[in-house]
Structure formats: structure tokens, C-alpha cells
Amino acid sequence: MKHEPTRLWGVSLLSAWLAIGCVLLAGSGSAYARDTAMLNALQLQQLVDDAHAKFKDVKEGKNANYIPILDTIPSELFGVAIALPDGTIFTAGDVDYRFAIESTSKPFTAALVMQQYGGPAAVAEKIGVEPTGLPFNSKLAVEVLEARSVNPLVNAGAMASVSMVKASSEDERWKMVLDNLSDFAGDKLPLMEEVYNSEYTTSFGNRGIANNLYNYERLYADPEEVLRVYTKQCSVGVTTKDLAIMGATLANGGVNPKTGKRLIDQKHVPELLAIMLTAGFYDGSGYWSMTAGLPSKTGVGGGIVSVVPGKMAIAAFSPRLDEHGNSVRAQRAIRYIAGELGVGIFGPNAD
Ligand code: GLN
Predict the structure, then answer these.
(1) 103 lines ligand 1 (CB under 6 A)
(2) Ligand 1 close to Cβ of residue 256 (< 6 A)
């Protein structure tokens, strides 16, 4: 029988993480962090195994079907991973299966824009940083909210982000977006051509949003070019492990633990995480913040990545989605792990 971790066990792990934090603050460097991580390795491995076992039989939700190819992905796939800021990774299930990154890409392109414009002020001014309280693909939000694009994590704002990338051609824009996602993953990520074709040929809603934003002067490049690059961005293939490392790069203050490359200034990581907390789950962000307490981003491919600042990233993937377009099993797994470890940013949840 599998060992069921108890709250007490979670609290003792929390103390260990707090100890890591204190030692790092005291300037003792990453060697100690690695040693302490080793001490907890068995427990962290057990925790991802338990999360996978506990939720693998959940059948709630449905694959996304408005992008035809996503409806054909086997619904039973399920991967769970924790990555530490030093790149150590603990995994369970289908963590090497490559799926479409979709909207989990959005905070990373927002990070690129923040870097290119010297901080989040340009994002706040040219896109917006408020939650919409509306679905990710809302056309109504563009009409009723004066910021139009509203925040970089909904489709409108994500297309605005792509339009802000400082590029002189479509090829260069795409290369910058793809290279940036690959840099966050610490690996060369591929474009999944079939996903791109399936999504681009059915992108009538997003095309409408792009044109409307352009009309409102809230899209900063040609709308069809932006739509193509945005759709390619969403069609990049990642594994659950890749997502965990992308999150660990944010947990690590903006430096990829595998490559040592800095991708966003440390001082801007909290600003990006704040947007992820308030808008990463779209109109499900309030409930997620209340029950998991972690800045996160979801995608209709079934991926979710959550960041515990300074401590770890938790990523999970499974294709069936709830009514907001967020993976049901991935939410359960991440919420369970965060709860057991007591790492919600507002303090351990009381259940
Ligand atoms: N590419 C998808 C779209 O534009 C992304 C949506 C999502 O993952 N929530 O609809």
C-alpha cells in the first residue's frame, strides 16, 4: 500500500524549505540548497507519486475540442513533476509526452516583452494587468474594458504581447518567441505543425480579436502576422518536465537552472508572478488563488505550471479540462502537492 503523507509530514517539509530559505538568505549559496533538497528527495518523489495515484482515475472534464486536434489527444495521459530551483526534478506518470503548450506560453512571452522594454510598465500601459473575470477568449472583454487587451494572459493580451516583441519581420518575431520559450525550458522546443495547422485554420475567434484590437490601436503589428506567430507560440510542444523547468526558472529568480541563462531580471519576477496569480486561471483565478495560493498558468493543451517563489515549480498535464479551460487532474495534483507541503504563498491552506 502506498504511504499517505500526513499534514504533519507536510509541515515538517515546510520547515525544511524555510530552513533552505534562511540559509540562502544568509548567503551560504546553492550547495546547501542542493544538500537539503537531497535530504527531501525521497519525500518529494513520494509526493508526486501520491498525487499521480490519487487523481489518475478522475474522469471529470473534457478535452478541448474547439481546436480539433486537441480532441484527439488520449485523455488518460497524466504527468506530474516538481522542479527545484537547482534543476532537480521529481516526476510521475507521462512526463515525457509532448503536448501543445497553448496558454502556458503566455507569461513567458510577457517576460520577454518586459525584458525588451525594461520592465513591466510598458506591459501595464500598452496591454493592461487587470483580471478580466471573463473567459480567456472573450470578445466582450475587448469591448467593455477600456484597456481592451486587459492582461497578457488572456488571448487578447497575449496577442498584444506578441505584437510588442521587438522584431523587424515575421520570421524574426517567431524566432524570438520560440527561442525565448526554449530558453525558459533549457531545451530546444519544437513547433507541432499539426497543432498549428489545426488551430490556425479554425482561428476565427482569435482573428476577430486581433483585428478588433488593431482597430482600437491596442495591437502593435499587422493583425494576421500576430495571429500566425501567436498561434505558433501556442503550438509549441512541451513535456511536463519542460514546463516544470520553465516554472523553476521563475522560482529561481529568472535564471534557468539547467543553462544558467538569465531570462528576466530578478526584480521583475514578482511582478510577473502577480499577474499569474490574478489572471493565470482566467475567470477561475479567484478560486484557484483561494484553494492553492500559487501563481500559475494553464493551457487548453492540458498543462498547468505553478510557481512557489524561491522554492520550486509544480507542473502537471492531463487533457481533460473544466469549464474555464483548465486541466482537472493537473489542478487537483498541484493543489494537493501545494497543500501537503504548505507552500501556498499566503500560508498553508486549512483545506
Ligand atoms: N491557443 C489557444 C487559443 O488561442 C490558447 C487558449 C488557452 O490555452 N487557454 O484559444
Answers:
(1) yes
(2) no
pTM, two decimals, is: 0.90
Q: Note the pLDDT tens digit of each residue in 154-179.
A: 999 999 999 999 999 999 999 999 99
In angstroms, rounded to a whole number, what is the distance separating the alpha carbons of residues 48 and 314? Answer: 9
Burial 48-73 (b: 16+ CB within 10 A, else e): bbbbbebbeeeeebebbeebebbeeb
What is the Å distance from ligand 1's center to 128 Cα? 19
Q: Which CATH superfamily is domain 103-233 in?
A: DD-peptidase/beta-lactamase superfamily (3.40.710.10)
Domain locations along the chain: 9-102+236-341, 103-233
CATH architecture label of 9-102+236-341? 3-Layer(aba) Sandwich (3.40)
Cα torsion 6, 318, 179, 116 to 10°: value is -70
Answer yes or no: is the C-beta of 136 below 6 A from any ligand 1 atom: yes
